[in-house]
Amino acid sequence: MSSTLVVDFGRYENSAALVNGDAVQQIGCPQLDQHHLRAIIAATAAPITRLVLTTPTAAGPSSVERAALLRLASDAGYPDAELVGTAIAAVMDPLVHPDLPDAAPVLVCDLGVAWSATLLRLSAAGATQLAEEVASVNLTRNGLETMAEQALRWLVASCRAVVARAGYTLSDVAGLVLVGGGARLPMAAHVLESELGLRVLRPREPEYAVIRGAARWANHRVIKASPATWRIEPLCWEITEAARLLRWLVAPGHAYAQGACLAQIRTLDDRVYDLHASREGIMVEHRLPPGSYVNSGEILALARSAQLIAGDRPVKRLELKVSGDWMLAPDRQHVVECADTGAYVRMRAIDTGTVVHEVRPDSSQFGRVFVHPSGRMALVSWDEGGRFAVWDIASGQLVSRFHAGARPLSVFVHENQWRLVSEVDKQVSVGRYRRDVAMMWDLDTGDVVEQMVGDDLRKRFAGYADRSTRDGFAEEVRSPDGRLRAGCSQVDGHAALWLHRADTDEEVFRAELSTARPVRSAFSADGHYLMSNWRSAEVSCLDVWKI
Predict the structure, then answer these.
(1) Side-chain-side CA neighbours of residue 316 (13 Å)
(2) Which one-letter DSSP state was computed for residue 292?
């Protein structure tokens, strides 16, 4: 069975181990040079498929140091060796199993020979280091048992410092990963958890966390081949004499009918020929610019045809869930994720699901995203005390604040008038009777527009809704090029997403969904992705299909 050899270049000492699955076999490792690395490789009985070198993360190794390390590995017979920082490797340890959200900042405390505190930001692609502090070896290496209290005080202060330096607060940090031999100190996890208020993740055998994580980092970073989706076909013509491409008449992304003129060419004796389409299609790419010489049979452009959809089943790319709402951004290239708590709003790329922008209010218990009459998206957040705030999502800036003075019983927004109305938990006396109270505010300014008193106030809330009516999804939608139609059918308590050709109504795709509730759909701006938005009993779901 193949194994990964991981060599950890520490600040004050080096270590090496052979990793095979969850098994870690430590290898004697002096201060390394070319001869020692070759000796370690030669002494390993199992075949080595990968060599990974981990390095201290403070400022990262310089280009000269990186080149020296890679040259060391190449001389030992591994020119494809990889380098990874120790903190990034630690958070990748499969025994840590951190259930951490995308784009979440995470603290890594390495209690090895020299202790360090590092703040990382996680992403679907891995992790990025934001800030780090390293203790002097005298503080942690000599007499650790007697100096543990002093070292832990340093560690707590350093954790606070790296979080602040990166522009975060401790409430933003998703967790703390504790690794290294010193992580076995009984008081370490307790002190960090009580002083910082963070969830501490300490793997079994924490001294091997960096080694295991580096092996996983190397072995799990793969790029899978993209499955076939739409069939792309070349456009070429039989041209019997020398000619230049004069102009394109159909731009990329535009549809054309059978027999349409797609381009024109001019021969050397100044005759102009039209290049016609043999069947309908959608222009994907021009391979040659105007002015280029063209030859018979040469591929001048690429196109796709709606007639070929049935041969390529759409592929599900993403399954996203949130205990809140999904909305389609105005550019139709991103989706917006909003938690019901209003704790965050994330903008994700439709094709990869990667978080590209995030807004986190300073405090809230509830939140909804609504669309301003100008088209801007805004988060309206509030708490049980009736404190409201409006945040512009694109800039992350606070727009307005206002206070109801009592607990909100309901919250509704009129997106055309950009006003908020809320029934509040208080009543006023009108003669001998007690009447309900509702307040109305201007969301741009936070000014009170009206205080309403009476019974059954909701009859006066015409045009107001508790969720956005402009979320970008609909019960039935057409693709941007007009060739496809998507919708939902519900039979015997089950829902299904369907995709039809618009001209013939031929069904080319159907997907059963685990819900009996209505399903709404949307296409991305380029028409390459179909999204279905539906709810289960607990969460709001978004499925993204590549078509």
Answers:
(1) 11
(2) -
Q: What is the pLDDT of residue 363?
A: 80
Cβ neighbour number for residue 28 with a 10 Å cutoff: 10
CATH fold, domain 361-460, is Thrombin, subunit H (2.40.10)
pLDDT in tens, 241-262: 889 999 999 998 787 888 899 9
In this structure, of 189-193, 283-287, 502-506, the range with the lowest mean pLDDT score is 502-506
pLDDT at 487: 92
Cα distance from N-terminal residue to C-terminal residue, the chain: 39
Rounded CA separation 350/337 (Å)? 12
Residue type at 302 in one-letter notation: L
Cβ atoms of 178 and 196 closer than 8 Å: no
- Sorted by sequence, the CB contacts under 8 Å of residue 142 that are 6+ apart come out as none
CA-closest candidate to residue 82, choices 106, 51, 111: 51
Helix axes 34-43, 63-75, angle to 10 degrees: 50
Q: Are 3-219 and 232-310 in the same CATH fold?
A: no
CA atoms within 13 Å, Cβ hemisphere of 204 = 5
Query: Can you tell me the distance from the alpha carbon of 535 to that of 426, in angstroms, rounded to the nearest whole number?
Result: 33
User: What are the residue ranges of helices labelled H in 44-136?
Assistant: 63-75, 86-91
Domain borders along the chain are 3-219, 232-310, 361-460, 471-546
Distance between CA atoms of residues 273 and 270, nearest Å: 10
Separation CA 49–CA 237 (nearest Å): 49
Q: Which CATH architecture has domain 3-219?
A: 2-Layer Sandwich (3.30)
Q: How far apart are CA 5 and CA 47, in angstroms?
A: 10
Q: What does the alpha-carbon distance between residue 499 and residue 532 come to, in Å, rounded to a whole number?
A: 11
CA 509 to the chain's CA centroid: 27
Contact 147, 140 (CB under 8 A): yes
CA distance 3 to 45: 10
| Interacting residues of 504 by C-beta distance below 8 A, sequence separation 6+ | none
Count Cβ atoms below 10 Å from residue 2 Cβ, excluding itself: 10
Tokens of 273: 């020929």
Q: How far apart are CA 361 and CA 358, in angstroms?
A: 10
Question: How large a percentage of the chain has pLDDT more than 90?
Answer: 33
Rounded to two decimals, what is the model's pTM?
0.51
Buried b / exposed e over 44-54, threshold 16 CB at 10 Å, is: eeeeeebbbbb
The secondary structure of the chain in percent helix, strand, coil, rounded to multiples of 5, reads 20, 40, 40
SS3 string, 148-196, reads: HHHHHHHHHHHHHHHHHHCCCCHHHCCEEEEECHHHHCHHHHHHHHHHH
Strand ranges for 77-138 from DSSP E? 82-85, 105-111, 115-123, 126-134
Q: What one-character DSSP code corresponds to residue 437?
A: E
| CB 371 within 8 Å of CB 415 | yes
Architecture category of domain 232-310 in CATH: Beta Barrel (2.40)
Rg (CA), the chain: 30
